[in-house]
Fold this sequence. Notes:
CATH architecture: 3-Layer(aba) Sandwich
Helix content: 40-55%
Structural class: alpha/beta
Largest sheet: 6 strands, parallel
CATH class: Alpha Beta
Strand content: 15-25%
Distance between the termini: 23 Å
Shape: globular
Number of helices: 6
CATH topology: Rossmann fold
Order of helices and strands: EHEHHEHEHEEH
Oligomer: single chain
CATH superfamily: Flavodoxin domain
Amino acid sequence: MTRLMIVVGSVREGRIGLPIAEWVRDAAASDGRFELDWADLKELALPLMTEPNHPRLRQYTQQSTMDWSERVDAAAAFVFVQPEYNYSYSPALKNALDHLSQEWWRKPLGTVSYGGISGGTRGVTALRVPEVAVGLVPTSANVEIPWVARQIDDESRFEPNEHQERMLAAQFDELVALDHALAPLRAARQR
């Protein structure tokens, strides 16, 4: 089984990303190929880069960083559920990414993005450079949800359409395949 961490990338009050992430979590649990870790950045409340040393050294001094490092290190793949803010990414998600370095190396990353007309695509594109810089390997199958508020029902649940369900299933397939392909590279680096 692939250990999959689902990261809720928004920390705003009333965030629409939470029901989307719950849909992703439920779909991954139903899939049966994943051991899940739920990482809600609002609950984690990582401070803004308080570590004195560069993350590549892994000489952490803050307990919150040590705990985050342990969880990310244990994960084999990720899905970032991320909004688009001002044509870019969520600051909380960028902060969570920047807290670490080696822990992300050669692990697959899928994204489920949401927003207005672009469906969060610009936020995904803006975050690709730092993601690749820390060694994450993005999937080609991603879920983009334009005009997301239209798909939230009266009980604050996300109602995916058929295309979004197909894309998430394709992303899961790719995450599993990439995990198996990248595992030897991760193992070689740890020697």
